[in-house]
Design brief:
Layout lengths: L9 H8 L37 E7 L18 H8 L2 E7 L5 H10 L3 H4 L21 H7 L3 E6 L14 E5 L12 E4 L7 E4 L5 H15 L4 E6 L37 H5 L18 H36 L6 E7 L18 H4 L3 E4 L8 E8 L3 H8 L15 H4 L10 E5 L11 E5 L3 E6 L4 E6 L25 H15 L18
Parallel strand pairs: 1-7, 1-8, 2-10, 3-4, 3-7
Antiparallel strand pairs: 2-9, 4-5, 5-6, 8-9, 11-12, 12-13, 13-14
Length: 523
């Protein structure tokens, strides 16, 4: 251009401000400077630092999409402490959840089983319609306890069960799914180490800081090898950042993602009917005189300011946890896992929340640091799923994996090339239908190129060719119905067969049987 400005195509412009999995991008001048995290010198060594068996610190983020983590290429913000973990371990670029919802995903992480087997189909507020979590079933912490480990969980629990009965020696959690984040009351904890008697306590301060304090308190009580689960509330509604970050992004305008003005015209009915549009968010109270488009834009900016400030607090907390391991001499003998319960729509498709079998909701971060075992800075693009977490931890500490766990250990992925029979497709099943978001139940299959989804209660389908349509804007079924685009008539039978195979493999008879209507060669 004559004025010296860069000339780019519309596709390149959209790629810079939005994409299939990495959401929005801030202008380079708005990116925070990368912080330098130095390893702290060790102080007095913790007794578990000398154990012949490794400890594990298993950190589960709440609703953190890849689009906010700079180790995954985000331009939204810098996350130096989470990046440190990725740089000192292995990062997985294709990590998925089996049911993009809080409680079901956490139950899967504990059991290594899909929702239909662990019992937690949806969140507890809709129980019993979406099942419940039976603490009598086998869990990762129970197995570890039987084999000489001490176990703890702090932060978000969100299961309708006593953590002590599910296998935890130490637990402190807060009722519900999210905030408020500044709240002195509402914490539930066991009376003493090893007890299942729960008492209510009050703790002042910001919940993310409290979670780190509880973690350190638990580990200080442990005298044996331990598995400590840290479950953050960030970034869940009401997206409250700590006071020091309340106005950090006030002067920043975040560009909307390329799919922000999606009108759902080329997809099945559930996309149009779901109640999770940014324009209708009740959280931030926009001025009454705004138009629908203005309200959508106004809400989005407020949402992103809060979300990013809250995420900044989680990255700070990660720094405190890693520094604590250094200070107590635990870093070299502790496996650190960082993952998430589900992804999140950051204005993608005009939405917030998760649930749908779309890329932003089903992808989760996953990284593992294990000094001396996992090569620092390694990256794997092999597919891993949250059913694999529990089997992987057991394998890393040298314990057998129960036959009824449906996942596999991903340990082979850092020991050499991926096994030839490693998964190339993955199965997803979402169940919860109700207030406030009204997303219809669906299951589906994802391959390296295609995503096939069946909203089985109304028998509408979506098919996406992510190679040509990475943003999943155009279903190749007409109006969600039963006639597929002519170019994909041979693809659908293969995907339907794979979907049936995976449902059989994972013993899932819930929902309606896989059936295209009217009767066709696909059935």
């Amino acid at each position: 251009m004559k004025d010296g400005r860069e000339s780019i195509t519309r596709r390149e412009a959209l790629a810079r401000i939005g994409g299939a999995a990495l959401g929005s991008a801030l202008a380079p001048s708005l990116i925070e400077a990368q912080q330098t995290t130095k390893k702290q010198p060790a102080g007095k060594r913790h007794p578990a630092a000398n154990s012949k068996r490794p400890n594990s610190l298993w950190i589960t983020a709440e609703g953190v999409p890849l689009s906010v983590l700079s180790c995954y290429g985000s331009h939204l913000m810098k996350t130096p402490n989470i990046d440190r973990l990725a740089n000192e371990g292995m990062r997985f670029t294709n990590s998925f959840c089996t049911n993009a919802l809080c409680a079901p995903s956490r139950a899967t992480l504990l059991t290594g089983k899909y929702s239909h087997l662990n019992g937690m189909l949806g969140n507890p507020h809709l129980a019993p319609n979406v099942g419940s979590f039976d603490p009598a079933q086998e869990t990762l912490p129970k197995i570890l306890k039987r084999n000489g480990y001490q176990t703890g969980v702090v932060g978000k629990w969100h299961l309708d069960a006593n953590p002590g009965e599910a296998g935890f020696d130490y637990y402190v959690y807060k009722r519900g799914a999210g905030g408020p984040y500044y709240q002195a009351s509402g914490y539930l904890r066991n009376e003493k180490l090893g007890s299942t008697t729960t008492v209510e306590k009050s703790y002042p301060g910001y919940i993310t800081d409290n979670v780190v304090d509880f973690t350190k308190e638990a580990i200080e009580e442990f005298t044996q090898p331990f598995c400590m689960m840290v479950q953050f509330f960030n970034d869940h509604r009401p997206f409250d950042p700590p006071h020091k970050y309340e106005h950090l992004y006030d002067d920043v305008r975040v560009p909307e993602p390329g799919t922000f003005y999606d009108d759902y015209s080329n997809r099945a009915a559930p996309a149009r009917e779901a109640k999770m549009r940014i324009a209708d968010m009740p959280d931030f109270h926009p001025p009454a005189d705004l138009t629908e488009v203005q309200r959508r834009q106004w809400n989005y900016q407020k949402f992103m300011q809060h979300f990013l400030g809250t995420m900044r607090a989680q990255d700070d907390a990660m720094g405190r946890l890693l520094e604590y391991l250094d200070e107590r001499g635990l870093a070299d003998n502790t496996i650190v896992v960082y993952t998430g319960d589900h992804g999140f729509f950051m204005g993608d498709h005009g939405w917030f929340d998760k649930r749908f079998m779309y890329e932003q909701a089903i992808r989760v971060p996953w990284m593992i640091r294990w000094p001396g075992k996992v090569k620092a800075g390694a990256v794997s693009d092999s597919w891993v799923v949250n059913i694999d977490n529990a089997p992987t931890v057991l394998d890393m500490v040298g314990l057998p994996i129960p036959a009824d766990m449906q996942g596999v250990s991903i340990k082979p992925l850092w020991e050499g090339p991926a096994p030839k029979d490693w998964r190339t497709s993955y199965y997803y099943h979402y169940y919860e239908f109700g207030s406030p978001h009204w997303v219809l139940p669906h299951y589906g299959v994802r391959t390296d190129r295609y995503t096939l989804i069946n909203y089985y209660t109304i028998n509408e389908w979506e098919l996406f060719d992510r190679q040509k349509d990475p943003d999943q804007m155009e279903s190749l079924f007409e109006w969600g119905g039963y006639k597929v685009h002519p170019d994909y008539e041979q693809v659908v039978p293969e995907l339907v067969a794979e979907l049936k195979k995976l449902r059989n493999q994972y013993k899932d008879a819930t929902g309606l049987p896989v059936k295209l209507w009217p009767t066709s060669s696909y059935d």
